[in-house]
Write a structure and sequence with these properties.
It contains seven helices and 18 strands. The chain is α+β, with helices and mostly antiparallel strands. The chain folds into two domains: about 60 residues, no CATH class; about 220 residues, Fumarylacetoacetate hydrolase, domain 2 (Alpha-Beta Complex), CATH 3.90.850.10. Strands 1, 2, 3, 4, 5, 6, 7, 10, 11, 13 and 16 form an eleven-stranded mixed beta sheet that branches. Strands 8-18-17-14-15 form a five-stranded mixed beta sheet, with no helix packed on it. Strands 9-12 form a two-stranded antiparallel sheet. The longest helix has 11 residues. It is globular.
């Protein structure tokens, strides 16, 4: 099953994504659907108002997640290009909900950065409350997967050893377009092709099978520290090919179109606009 949050004229609506229609399932967004223990089974059979897929405007998948946890240095290729050793534990940082945007919304380049970078990532969407999850509990807590573009302000990220200030700028982080349930992508440890293109040039290309810490392991690890709630998001890290690691570096300056795709999960297509223009 594929679910999304559709942006309508005066509201948002959670929808089931079908080939010929987007079917409303009676909730304002995917997050509120997941918060209902019966939400997923209801969504599978609901037959509410229908909308044409063509020209659909998707809001950020979960409009107000209680937390967005991101993982750095989780693909071997990216770790190598950044000149680091393989980590023994996941490298974690957070984003705020105000950073998230929809699948075709503009990425707003802050005036304060000269080093805006792209990062295509597989994201885990949590479907049930879990704390100190066992492997079996972590598997059950994964509602599905989506695409996440962890846009980063590198000059701010590396001001200190903590990355938050480079990672959570307002209206910079596309998420979506859909939540795809594990049964459609090979289970809770999927091996999916990932790709990022900037103005038609492929910058990143890899497979989620290269992850050091897979989605289940990340749910176990994060939930050890903090409870995970329905609608929470874990972004699993980016593969090699980021602009910052190129020689010379390449950054987004404004006007570019960034397309991030993951096999079976759709695509995000976002234009970079300079704040205030």
């Amino acid at each position: 099953m594929k679910l999304a949050t559709l942006r309508l004229q005066d509201r948002t609506a959670a929808v089931r994504v079908e080939d010929e229609a987007l079917v409303e399932v009676g909730r304002p967004d995917v997050g509120s659907l997941l918060a209902d223990p019966e939400g997923m089974s209801t969504a599978a059979t609901a037959d509410g108002p229908r909308h044409e897929p063509g020209g659909a405007r998707f809001a950020t998948l979960v409009t107000r997640p209680s937390k967005v946890v991101c993982v750095g240095l989780n693909y071997r290729t990216h770790i190598q290009e950044m000149g680091r050793d393989l980590p023994a534990y996941p490298t974690l940082f957070s984003k705020f909900a105000d950073a998230l945007i929809g699948a075709t919304d503009d990425i707003v380049k802050p005036a304060e950065t000269a080093e805006l970078d792209w990062e295509v990532e597989l994201a885990v969407v949590i479907g049930g409350r879990v704390r100190r999850a066992t492997t079996i509990e972590a598997e059950a807590a994964i509602a599905g997967f989506t695409i996440f573009n962890d846009i980063s302000c590198r000059d701010w990220q590396f001001r200190t050893s903590e990355w938050l200030q480079g990672k959570s700028w307002d209206s910079t982080t596309p998420v979506g377009p859909w939540l795809v349930t594990p049964d459609e992508v090979g289970g809770v440890r999927p091996a999916l092709a990932v790709r990022c293109d900037v103005d038609g040039t492929t910058m990143q290309k890899d497979n989620t099978g290269d992850l050091l810490f897979d989605p289940v392991a990340l749910v176990e690890y994060v939930s050890t520290m903090i409870r995970l709630n329905p609608g929470d998001i874990i972004a699993t890290g980016t593969p090699g090919g980021v602009g910052h690691a190129r020689r010379p570096p390449i950054y987004l300056t404004g006007g570019e179109t960034v397309v991030t795709e993951i096999e079976g999960l759709g695509r995000l297509e976002n234009r970079v606009v300079v704040e205030g223009r």
